[in-house]
């Protein structure tokens, strides 16, 4: 069982910590444990309950009315809301709740229904980015377990692959882009999404996946003959490692490089006329 601080709940639910304290005091919605230094500590059950409360609250129900409901009544109302509408709050909250409970059926159903209704591109931009950013913060501090992270990552990965396979074949020609992650980088959701978007826009891509050594890439460039490279870097690495890797890549491969992932936000783009943010190509 995980233990969450009030700031973790704020991150996952979008409800401000101050508001949570007021709700606890005024309505008794949650009864957190406390450490010896009086710091609040919340359980998985507290988080799931609050996620459901957030869905009802965002749908227009007053918090005083929600406080009068039993947990069973809250869950019933949440199901009714989610069956009739796919608001941002409901989708993201249900995904987080399903992750916490490792509820495959709900997680898969919510993603599938939302993709069917709005399409993968909209779902990724409007829902999954926010969801992944929220759980990413907790992954760094160790609140989320590797099991939970792998559980959600693999379902999202499968969905992107399925939607990519539905796209029509691009005419055979020189590859517009080769996509990969560096050696030691195993996060590929962003990379899979870039591949999907490019194929959707009729670019011919070669997806090489994760953990690709620079030497192997260099040796295969003459055979692949791509126009561009697309690299995704998500893992929490040092700035020096990031710069050293990009220096090596620029030295070994004389091609334009489009870079995606959290490293751009953390450390910026390398100073090179051959490196561009992936948004320059696929948009935000």
From TrEMBL:
Keywords: DNA-binding, Repressor, Transcription, Transcription regulation
Xref: Gene3D superfamilies: 1.10.1660.10, Cobalamin-binding domain, Methionine synthase domain
All copies of domain HTH merR-type, residue ranges: 3-72
Annotated GO MF terms: cobalamin binding; DNA binding; DNA-binding transcription factor activity; metal ion binding
Xref: InterPro entries: Cbl-bd_cap, Cobalamin-bd_sf, DNA-bd_dom_put_sf, MerR-type_HTH_dom, MerR_fam, Meth_synthase_dom
Protein's UniProt keywords contain Transcription regulation: yes
Name used for this protein in its record: MerR family transcriptional regulator
Organism: Brumimicrobium glaciale
């Amino acid at each position: 069982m995980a233990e969450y601080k009030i700031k973790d709940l704020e991150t996952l639910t979008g409800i401000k910590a101050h508001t949570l304290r007021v709700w606890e005091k005024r309505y008794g919605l949650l009864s957190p444990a406390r450490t010896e230094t009086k710091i609040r500590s919340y359980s998985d059950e507290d988080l799931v309950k609050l996620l459901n409360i957030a869905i009802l609250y965002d749908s227009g129900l007053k918090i005083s009315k929600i406080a009068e409901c039993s947990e069973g009544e809250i869950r019933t109302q949440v199901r009714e809301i989610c069956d009739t509408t796919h608001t941002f709050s409901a989708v993201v909250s249900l995904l987080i709740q399903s992750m916490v409970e490792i509820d495959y059926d709900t997680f898969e159903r919510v993603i599938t229904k939302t993709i069917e209704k709005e399409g993968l591109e909209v779902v990724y931009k409007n829902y999954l980015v926010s969801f992944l950013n929220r759980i990413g913060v907790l992954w760094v501090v160790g609140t989320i377990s590797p099991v939970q992270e792998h559980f959600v990552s693999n379902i999202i990965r499968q969905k992107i692959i399925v939607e990519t396979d539905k796209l029509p074949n691009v005419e055979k020609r020189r590859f517009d882009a080769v996509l990969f992650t560096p050696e030691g980088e195993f996060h590929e959701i962003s990379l899979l999404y870039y591949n999907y978007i490019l194929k959707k826009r009729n670019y011919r891509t070669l997806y090489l996946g994760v953990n690709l050594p620079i030497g192997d890439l260099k040796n295969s460039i003459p055979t692949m003959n791509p126009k561009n490279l697309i690299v995704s870097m998500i893992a929490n690495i040092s700035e020096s490692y990031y710069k050293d890797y990009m220096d090596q890549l620029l030295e070994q491969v004389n091609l334009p490089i489009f870079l995606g992932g959290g490293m751009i936000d953390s450390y910026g783009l390398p100073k090179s006329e051959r490196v561009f943010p992936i948004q320059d190509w696929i948009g935000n």
